């Protein structure tokens, strides 16, 4: 798709391949990639001289692939699905933001590519502009099979419809199940999914259901689900969280009165673990608020809280920061000498209603009950954390943020290259885990100093393989891969790689 200049010494494919390798091993700014290549045997493995990888050549490669990002990402994903036999019938979708360093004035940006703008950054760097990326992660090994770059100011809700067709094409003849976060919940998205015949699961925003509704539910009437969180697998059964489900119907009215009301299944989920966490968090908030309110009460009429206005102002700050405004009741009066007096208490009825709602949340789905009962809906949704874990890889070892590239066209291309690196990272992790699961429980020794048996992550696998060294040979002496630890050979064996063939490393 991107033929090189006949005068160029490297093809764009070679440059992108090296960039992907850089992100998987030791991410560096574009002007440092040449230095990295000199120390990481890039010439011996890829046949690319380190001196040719200057930032101008890398930038030209990004410019060349920028007009073809969707086609490139789609073709590579299709190749991965075919080569590794990925099951893409279930795909989890989410969007994240990447902070971008630089001014990037709007007048200087290319309108054909995602715009770098201020938005609502996930990392809370409101002082920086951003772009956004959406990932479609299949349930089979949590591999990202779809990635797309969006404007920094684009709303997450509006991107769901555009992703439906692409994900549906990836699923091919299989019926797609799309699992998303609460941003999917809007009349337009739900209507588009129903019209497209795409099954979906998404949480209902907390604001859509009142505490009074939750307080009217009876947990004992809910059916228990055999579901254990991965973090609790080693705990005794009595210490693990328990899940229960009920089912009813969620009406979704349109923005206009004449719009037909959509009806979808609603799964009401109660988690004992969530209930305990919410109860503990509320107790901490109340305790901190009580201590601060008592300090104001004792200081009323003194140096800092000498007037009713100052007391009211401080109480308002406490109510907002400790999130107790709904249950806090206060009265400010004066004594015989005219000194202000503060009286306060927490409304027990409000607290009881909040406590009754602890642990409850709701999911909506279009999956038919005959094919996916309430318990199955919950189990399908519980894997949504895979997307968040991939964003951790995206912004962590692959170092996608912060980004500093001169043009928004190149920013989009660089992020797409990093998405390719993330795809390979996840395929490596999937292959190692599948090999371990064929012979055991999917865990292995040697990744941590204490000998703990763990499920290997892509980050940990590449960390250990980064310790391999290549000894250069001569005319009659081939290059040799030097292994310092047994875990190197074990990982290569799990990946199906021959240690005697360094060109594959």
UniProtKB/TrEMBL annotation:
Keywords, ordered alphabetically: Membrane, Transmembrane, Transmembrane helix
Transmembrane segments: 411-428
Domain of life: Bacteria
Ranges for domain DUF4277: 2-66
Cross-referenced Pfam families: DUF4277
NCBIfam families from the UniProt entry: transpos_IS1634
Protein name: IS1634 family transposase
Provenance organism: Streptomyces celluloflavus
């Amino acid at each position: 798709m991107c033929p090189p200049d006949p005068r160029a010494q490297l093809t764009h494919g070679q440059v992108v391949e090296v960039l992907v390798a850089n992100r998987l091993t030791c991410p560096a700014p574009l002007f440092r990639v040449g230095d990295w290549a000199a120390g990481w045997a890039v010439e011996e493995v890829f046949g690319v001289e380190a001196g040719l990888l200057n930032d101008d050549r890398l930038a030209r490669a990004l410019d060349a692939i920028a007009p073809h990002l969707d086609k490139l990402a789609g073709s590579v994903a299709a190749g991965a699905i075919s080569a590794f036999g990925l099951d893409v019938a279930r795909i989890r979708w989410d969007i994240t933001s990447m902070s971008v360093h630089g001014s990037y004035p709007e007048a200087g940006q290319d309108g054909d590519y995602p715009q770098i703008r201020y938005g609502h950054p996930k990392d809370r760097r409101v002082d920086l502009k951003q772009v956004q990326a959406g990932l479609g992660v299949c349930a089979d090994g949590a591999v990202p099979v779809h990635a797309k770059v969006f404007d920094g100011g684009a709303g997450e809700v509006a991107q769901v419809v555009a992703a439906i067709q692409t994900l549906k094409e990836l699923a091919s003849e299989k019926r797609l199940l799309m699992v998303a976060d609460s941003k999917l919940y809007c009349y337009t998205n739900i209507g588009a999914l129903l019209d497209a015949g795409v099954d979906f699961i998404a949480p209902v925003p907390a604001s859509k259901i009142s505490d009074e509704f939750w307080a009217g539910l009876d947990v004992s009437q809910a059916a228990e689900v055999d579901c254990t969180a991965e973090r609790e697998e080693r705990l005794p059964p009595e210490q693990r969280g328990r899940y229960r489900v009920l089912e009813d119907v969620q009406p979704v009215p349109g923005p206009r009165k004449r719009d037909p009301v959509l009806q979808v299944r609603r799964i009401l989920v109660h988690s004992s673990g969530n209930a305990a966490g919410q109860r503990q968090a509320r107790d901490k908030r109340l305790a901190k608020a009580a201590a601060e309110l008592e300090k104001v009460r004792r200081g009323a009429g003194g140096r800092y809280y000498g007037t009713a206005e100052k007391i009211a102002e401080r109480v308002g700050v406490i109510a907002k920061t400790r999130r107790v405004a709904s249950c806090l009741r206060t009265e400010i009066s004066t004594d015989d000498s005219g000194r202000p007096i503060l009286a306060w208490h927490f409304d027990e009825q409000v607290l009881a209603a909040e406590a009754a709602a602890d642990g409850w949340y709701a999911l909506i789905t279009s999956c038919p009950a005959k094919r996916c009962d309430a318990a199955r809906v919950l189990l399908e949704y519980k894997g949504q954390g895979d997307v968040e874990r991939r964003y951790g890889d995206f912004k962590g070892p692959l170092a996608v943020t912060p980004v500093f590239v001169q043009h928004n066209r190149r920013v989009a291309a660089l992020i797409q290259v990093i998405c390719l690196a993330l795809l390979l990272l996840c395929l490596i992790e999937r292959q190692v885990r599948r090999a371990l699961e064929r012979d055991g429980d999917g865990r292995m020794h040697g990744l941590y100093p204490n000998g703990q048996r763990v499920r290997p992550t892509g980050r940990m696998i590449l960390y250990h393989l980064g310790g391999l060294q290549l000894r250069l040979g001569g005319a009659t002496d081939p290059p040799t891969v030097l292994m310092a630890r047994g875990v190197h050979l074990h990982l290569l064996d799990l990946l199906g790689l021959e240690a005697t063939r360094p060109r594959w490393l």
